[in-house]
Amino acid sequence: xxxxxxDFRSSSLSMEAFMAAVGDLTADDWKAxxxxxxxxGEQLARAGLKIGYHNHNIEFKPLGNTTPYEIxxxxxxxxxxxxxxxxxxxxxxGLDPVELLRRHRGRFQLMHVKDLKSSTKPNYTIxxxxxxxxxxxxxxxxxxxxxxxxxxRNFIVEQEPPYPAGALVSVENGYRxxxxxxx
Length: 183
What we know:
Blueprint: H1 15-23, H2 27-46, E1 51-54, H3 68-75, E2 81-86, H4 87-92, H5 97-103, E3 108-113, E4 115-116, E5 130-131, H6 140-150, E6 154-157, H7 167-180
Parallel strand pairs: 1-2, 2-3, 3-6
Antiparallel strand pairs: 4-5
Helix pairs in contact: 2-3, 5-6
């Protein structure tokens, strides 16, 4: 299978077409993706770089008795492939990011600090009802220590649109919230 390359900034591919393509991926397709991450990760390691994988909620859609995310976790080598956990997308899939961090301790180096409103319905279709970090339903008092314990050292404030008062205001609100937390 040739690699799937998508860039929504320059592509005419709609979100609907993207979701249809991803929805048709099989367990073997996801295993091939894991193999590709390992292969490219080995090449990058020789240049002193590391490859990482960022999730959305689509990777948590059940696929037989597993999920695409579990296939990627099991099929990639921990010393070659790292993961950037987007906790907002994990929560929008109806899962607990703290449990995921604990189950895959040592696989995460980066985390998107993203919150969502309790009105977000669990789904696997790239849909969420975003909130500024600290203004949503995630329990940051549990989540941040679990992330640090799991190996996360880089925390990136990110939010999906729509922004309540603009993108920069949302980033500022997230930063302000995180700055007030006790270390």
